[in-house]
Amino acid sequence: MKVVVADDSRVMRQIVIRTLRQAGYDWWEIEEAENGADALTKIQASQPDFVLSDWNMPEMTGIELLRNLRAAGDETPFAFVTSEGSDQMRETADQAGALFLIAKPFTADTFRDTIDPLLA
Length: 120
Fold this sequence. Notes:
alpha/beta, five-stranded parallel beta sheet, 47% helix
C-alpha cells in the first residue's frame, strides 16, 4: 500500500511514520512530502492508496491540498494528523471529504483503532 505523509516538520513526519510502523503498518510504502504543494505533486505522480496530512503547512495547507485533489476528481482516501482537533476543524475536514482527523499527541493504538476499520 502506497501512502503519502505530508507535514512541514521532518521530525513530525518521522514520528508519524514510526508510529504507523508501531501500529503494525510496517508493510506500507511511505513517501514523505514537506508541504501541501509537495504532496500534491507527489500524489499526482505516484497515485498513492492513502494520504495522511498535517493541516497547517506553508505553501499549501492540508485542507487546501484535500480541496485541490477533490476539485481535480482525485478521490484518494485522505486523513489529517494535526495539532488541532476542534469540532469546527473536524466538520470542515469531513465536509471536504476527509476520512478522519487525529489530533496530536497520538499513539500507535490511536492509529490502529482509527485505521483498521477502514482497511477491513
